[in-house]
Amino acid sequence: MDDYKDLDTKILTHLGDYTGVIKKKITLLDHYIAERRSMLNSMGADSEVYFSNPIHAYSMIHHLHFVWVFWIKLMEDPPGKEIISQIERLLPQSPGKEVLQIRLAWLWHLQTAMDSENLFDLDESHVNLLDSLEIGKFAFEKKQYKHAEKWLNSSFKKLEKLNPEQRNLFNILGALNERQVQQLRDETILKTKIIK
Are residues 182 and 114 in the same domain? Predict the structure, then answer.
């Protein structure tokens, strides 16, 4: 597990570096936009008078012909390509879904064999949304519908508390599909009622 912790730390460090690169690009763009707006505002209401000066007219033509091309190239060039490559090289070291499923199964069997508190009876309020969802799905696969309902309900409540930015992040990452969570929860509730 220490290897996974180190891996997570390395990826977070690279992600921090990546945000730094993006912030520098945004700062550069913000400065340029502010400078350009200031220049346009300095023309005053009568732009004809301003452009009657050949230097001002040349500057505008030069800007529109050359400078915007540079900014478009800058915008099209994705920031942090090297950082992205470093993260991509680390990803094969991360555990796959099979490892997660094996770990959950191992915990479930261990706790069942020890006849101790069931894994599914843990306090779900201390478990994050994605882990709660995985435990709910695992309980469903094990036909532990009562426990699956508890964990999926917990997941759904946590999902409802997300702000739009957090929801967008989960959607971008493809980590969570709200409709699938709802469907699985509904199916679990139905199976729980049938068993009763």
Answer: yes
